[in-house]
Amino acid sequence: LQLAWLDGWGGLVLDVTCAPTGTMFTSSTDWTQERFDAPAPEIATAVEVRLLISGRGRAWMRNLELTHIG
Predict the structure, then answer these.
(1) String of b and e for 22-44 (b: at least 16 CB within 10 Å)?
(2) Alpha carbon distances (Å) from 17 to 2, 7, 20
(3) Exposed site from 15, 38, 44, 59, fewest CB < 10 Å?
(4) How far apart are CA 49 and CA 2, in angstroms?
């Protein structure tokens, strides 16, 4: 799971290698709760939630929640 912060023009605010990411999983796993803090850069106006898969496989997200803190 990765968060990509965007500016008002839809451009990336941070280099993708610096974007907040969750845990990397390999092989089959049961449902897992993923949680991490990702402070938004000041100039960010939107965020993309990205689920990345390398190779063959399937992934599901259920009850995705983004919470504003502060």
Answers:
(1) eeeeeeeeeeeeeeeeeebeeeb
(2) 10, 17, 9
(3) 15
(4) 6
